[in-house]
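Annotated sample (chain length 287).
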Amino acid sequence: MIVRRWPVLLSILLLLISCGKKERIVEVPVPMDCAPSAPRGVYSVNMGDRVEIVWYPNPETDVVSYDVYRGAFLYGDYFYIGSVNDVDPDPADYYYDDTDVETGVQYFYAVVAVDAKGNESDLSYEEVSGTPRPEGQLTIYAATVLPDHSGYDFSSLSDSSQAYNLATTDIYFSTSSGFAQLVAYRAGVDIQDYGFSGDFDAVNYAPTEGWSISRSAEAIAGHCYILRLFEGDGDHYAKLFVNEVTDQSVKFTWGYQTAPNNRDLSPGKAVEPSKVTDERVPVVNGG
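Output written by the structure step:
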């Protein structure tokens, strides 16, 4: 366990004047070797193969490094995973990449500031978690043009298209109605047009309602689409961003959350840094 050291106190004498204008000596303890404040503004960014932890720089000028901790639960042990030692005196923010992660596993993070004398701050207070999820890019074709390459199964996590009418096909591309559509095929798949976002990473969470009654949506370049896909272990969520659409094909970027019943589709702030807690217990190197 980390040993938290109380700051060394220096007693100084202050000369105070009482209401009766009589002098008296009062001994006041003043910190001589204070620990830094806990880092603030901590949040996580999900990547396909890592989680990036970001935070604001500390106000103390003698902070020389930051230690990053990870836990399996919000309230529980946090284990040291690495440090950021090259501290810029005036950065926009700091970050650390946690690459020792598994897709679909949720992790919780906290950061500690360390000053030049080795004093350590408390763990950061924000509730911060990250759940890495895979992503990719794909082109599928109209079912009337290339039927064997008109569909996609998100759970395959592949860069390969498939036939529109297989039992595993989640969506397929159709132009038979006179306009380009993304259509849910197998039972248990819902889709909705989440509107123009201009960016794949602009949408971080899947909604709980608003699914298309027709189980289809017009494919429009620049729009983001959210999908709810029932698998054997529960609901999984996916998003796709249409990069380009023609009367024969649609090119999109996709992201799929492998953790069941988890609506986090970041990159983005996986948990907003607004809730605070001080009930976490840090552990160094698992010991």
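Annotation: The chain has two domains: 43-132+269-286, 135-256.
Annotation: The mean pLDDT is 83.
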